[in-house]
Amino acid sequence: MEQHKKAFLGLSSFLGNEVDPRHADLLLFTCCLSSGLVDSTIYKAYNTFVSMQTGNTIFVGLGASNQNPRPYGWARSLTSIGCFVIGCFLFARLSRIIGARRRGSLMLSFFIQAIIIVITAALVQGGVVSSALDDSSQSITRWDQEVPIVLLSLQSAGQIVASRALGFNEIPTVVITSLLCDLMSDPKLFLLRNEKRDRRIIAFVLTLIGAIIGGWVTKATGDIAPILWLSAGTKFIVAFAWGFWKTKA
Questions:
Q1: pLDDT band at residue 9, thresholds of 50, 70 and 90?
Q2: What are the CB-based long-range contacts (under 8 Å, 24+) for 178-187?
Q3: Residues contacting residue 88 through CB under 8 Å, at least 6 positions apart
Q4: What pLDDT shows up at residue 1?
Q5: Which of 6, 121, 237, 245 has the most beta carbons within 10 angstroms of its beta carbon?
């Protein structure tokens, strides 16, 4: 009994330790890659984004004048915006309750994100939800396609909440516009050593690479599930990585 108690206390202490945020940007860079992978794929399938909410806002605006490409396309974009907001609220409250920089909090956050993507990939691959890539008619409204948008928008909020909690505001992981503005506005842009500039450039390049890979894989396979499985695997790797991350001194 005493041995079990010591093991529990050891695990509790391990998960309750704060991680050292130094070099944590390396894990956040994988989230940028994931955003590019997922957003390019989901846009191809459903004409909406699940991370980049600026584009969705414009799509909702175009829907007001009936110029969205798909019937009720504005509804998909509005769903994404709403679920992203809810996701930010939930992940932020969760990290605040547990402790934003605690190992257990970060591991739990990324495990939740990974599991959500796994569920989405399984639903699409199992045919429960249509991927819309093979739709021959643009006039048919498939409301089951809201499911992936709901799930993926919720999970994408987790990574930006984590980037804020770790103090890497220059790597929002889901936003490019402000990242580019901050990059070009940096008074130390041309200095030889500038970590924030370097992080912004890497984040932009990885998001772009993710989008390119997502586009090619979706085109080659005619399916969105492979990219979702890849993104889920990336999130699982990040979640496990927090378990080995150095503790704050």
A1: low
A2: 179/203, 179/204, 180/204
A3: 157, 160, 161
A4: 66
A5: 121
Indicate whether 211 pLDDT > 60: yes
Q: Is 102 in contact with 19 (CB distance < 8 Å)?
A: yes
Domain ranges of the chain: 23-244
CATH of 23-244 among 1.10.10, 1.25.40, 1.20.1250, 3.30.70: 1.20.1250
Identify residue 71 by its one-letter amino acid code: P
DSSP string, 26-48: HHHHHHHHHHHHHHHHHHHHHSS
Q: Are 227 and 214 in contact (CB under 8 A)?
A: yes
**What is the structure's pLDDT at 136?**
46
Where does residue 226 rank: exposed (0-12), middle (13-18), buried (19+ CB within 10 A)? middle
Return d(Cα 117, Cα 235) in angstroms, integer: 9
Per DSSP, the residues of 44-105 read: HHHSS-SS-HHHHHHHHHHHHTT--SSTTHHHHHHHHHHHHHHHHHHHHHHHHHH-TTBHHH
pLDDT, tens digit (0-9, with 9 covering 90-100), for 223-236? 999 999 999 999 99
> Using CB atoms within 10 A of its CB, is residue 186 exposed (0-12), middle (13-18) or buried (19+)?
middle
The three-class DSSP label of residue 247 is strand
Please tell me the predicted confidence (pLDDT) of residue 224. Answer: 93
Cα–Cα distance measured from residue 61 to residue 93, given in angstroms and rounded to the nearest whole number? 30
Model pTM score: 0.91
pLDDT tier for residue 146 given thresholds of 50, 70 and 90: very high
